[in-house]
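re: ur msg from earlier - yeah i can do the adenosine-5'-diphosphate complex, just paste it... oh wait u already did. ok heres what im feeding in:
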Amino acid sequence: MSMTEETTPAVGIDLGTTYSAVAYLDETGRPITLVNAEGDLVTPSVVLFEGNQAVVGKEALKAIATEAEHVAQCAKRELGERTFHKNLQGRKYPPEALQAFVLNKLRQDATRQIGDFRKVVITVPAYFDEVRRKATQDAGYMAGFEVLDIINEPTAAAIAHGFLKGFLNRKGESNAPRKLLVYDLGGGTFDVTVMEIRGREFLALATDGDVQLGGQDWDQRLIDYVAEEFIRTYQLDPREDPNTAGRLWRECEDAKRTLSARGKVSISCDYKSQAVRVEVTREKFEEITQDLLNRTQFTTKQTLQAAGLSWSDLDYVLLVGGSTRMPMVAKMLRTMSGKEPDASVAVDEAVAHGAALHAGILLAKSRGEIPLVNITNVNSHSLGVVATDTRTERKRNAILIPRNTTLPVTAKRVFRTQKAGQKSILVRIVEGESASPEDCSQIGKCVVRDLPPDLPAQTPIDVRFQYQENGRLTVQVSVANTSRELKHEITRENSLTAEQLEAWRLYVTGQPVSDPEPSGIADDLTIVIEEDE
Ligand code: ADP
Ligand code: MG
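and the outut:
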């Protein structure tokens, strides 16, 4: 029996750096988190390679203490890189392929409960750039999904919250506009977004974050604290052995959770037949991690400012992410905002619930129904091209779309050819805030070739960017007084080719294995844009 649109379940996936969650909408349209095969609501985003098998989740997480060298974790942090930093059983993996193994496990476990399904919405941090969004979409494809959309985690959390609080009713009737701040501190990333909900519109006003800050940094402080005690006692560093380090990490992560509920905890560590037991109070823990919290505080203030708001303009502050269970987080936000932070939607389920609600909206739209809510996003990084400043002769980042612009957007800027008789034009597209191109990341380039001879210097070149809501960028270049015009959707430079995606999809989902290596790793692709007829 083929699946009809009617029976296609609305499924949303929170593909986290450290933990992932899946939710679907039940018959009444309510989001429900699906438990995995182990019976847990969240699945560690960790992959263990064992012989020919990839084991995902709790078991893989445990293996960090015994066979750390075969374990891949935090691949999300490396999305956009060509390969994961670590070889696994002698093999290189693109980070998105590791993400695909996680997604495949989620798909299999969910299928046992809601039957076969393909269509999903996957979430990403709002701070993710174009490159990482595309990689996430590719991971979904490799795991056997049809990715309906990629949405921002804070937007998803706000949707889930709005639904729970009932201001998104069935008819989508508008209440008074609401402004909120989403503070999401997970395992590996920190994300803060200021949003406005106007009736059915979800509008992100400003977004910022830190892709290298999360609960693991809090873990690391505990690890270092214990290790230093060990060194003082035995002149030995337990962190030097991967398995001991792995075991210590698990101990410390556990202790951190305990400290969210209790005033003190003791952590033991043994290495080379020596052992220490270290007692840590919540006060001590907060002291040794204060600077990490301060970093999130700083970014939060800045984001509020970027949105042009002050604390009194906000209706509420939403807590998202497992690390917001640490009492120091709510304490800091309470003091700073004068509001009681809201954790009414479970902090580690909110994002998946919002993704499922968004999937429901998209499926309803495709059936011709009127959607419950609309989502409006902003871009999190400025997009520009590299141009030479004629006065200084220096290369600079000429921004076409500043950050925090509401999407979709089209922007145009006119540049000029450098010299007379120029044969071709190189347009390098960069993402970033800095005026100097070296500090930005190049996301693609296009070359306009075969310009007519005798083209005078200073001939105008129109560069047009079209940036869609899902973060895809189309670049159009036209040269005045010529028929030269190019249009191309930017593909990231480290991207896998269609054939490679296909091969990985077969490999990950366990269908007839076609070995994706070594050709499974993309070469550095240069984007040369074909000319439009
Ligand atoms: P991500 O979305 O980045 O994968 P999650 O939102 O699932 O992350 O949060 C995972 C992080 O939350 C981990 O670092 C974990 O240690 C931390 N965490 C989970 N529960 C608690 C708790 N009770 N106290 C402190 N930290 C917690
Ligand atoms: Mg998360």
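cool cool. Residues 14, 16, 153, 186, 321, 351 surround magnesium ion (ligand 2) (CB under 6 Å). ping me if u need the other ligands too
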